[in-house]
Design brief:
By secondary structure, the protein is mainly alpha-helical. It folds into two domains: 61 residues, no CATH class; 123 residues, MetI-like fold (Orthogonal Bundle). Helices cover 72% and strands 0% of the residues. It has nine helices and no strands. The radius of gyration is 26 Å and the shape is extended. The chain starts with 8 loop residues before the first helix and ends with a helix.
């Protein structure tokens, strides 16, 4: 985005200064990753740049750490579990959060403010308190070490983000379109699909 012709010296200084500050912040955030990636190819068993690596000698580089990761059943099992938990909890949180947002977007919904506050409360409560409460709850039912408990805990933490996002998207939705589709004989599923 270019500056308008009438921009003064202060506006020009802020325009370029702001971009410079943003670039510094981005560099500060991305620099640790930029450093870690070449170190992951280190042929030696310690975490530093060797002279061979700095001189770009191929002998200083190795895939030993990636082979160790891919050859370890513990790590691969952990990766599979993480992918399963992430996918399951994301799908469930999206489904439940969207349903809740659809209900909260209706003007005739009673106690909408109270229900919204309850639904987004996991975002406000510190994570350590939520984690301790959920663990205590699941431990009573002997579910503390199950996939179900972990997935549902992630759903509890993820659903409020879906509720807020979908509710914000539906805040400008014209509710008369729902009544119009129903007056034309459309069922709820057809109305919802057309609502997108």
């Amino acid at each position: 985005m270019s500056l308008p012709a009438y921009a003064g010296p202060g506006e020009r200084a802020w325009h370029y200064g702001f971009r410079f500050i943003c670039a510094l912040i981005f560099l500060f955030l991305i620099f640790p990753i930029v450093v870690i990636v070449p170190l992951s190819f280190n042929a030696l068993p310690y975490f530093t740049f060797t002279e061979a690596m700095l001189s770009l000698d191929p002998a200083g580089y190795s895939l030993r750490w990636y082979n160790a990761l891919l050859g370890s059943e513990e790590w691969m099992s952990s990766i599979r579990n993480s992918l399963f938990i992430a996918t399951s909890s994301s799908l469930i949180a999206t489904f439940l959060g969207t349903l809740a947002a659809l209900g909260l977007s209706r003007p005739q919904m009673p106690a909408r403010g109270l229900i919204t506050a309850i639904l987004i409360s996991p975002m406000i409560v510190p994570l350590i308190i939520t984690a301790a409460a959920l663990f205590s709850f699941y431990a009573r039912f002997q579910l503390g070490n199950s996939f179900f408990a972990i997935i549902m805990s992630h759903v509890v933490l993820g659903a409020p983000f879906v509720v807020i996002t979908v509710t914000a998207a539906l805040s400008n939705f014209d509710q008369s379109l729902i009544r119009a589709s129903q007056s034309l004989g459309a069922d709820g599923v057809t109305t919802f699909c057309a609502r997108r």
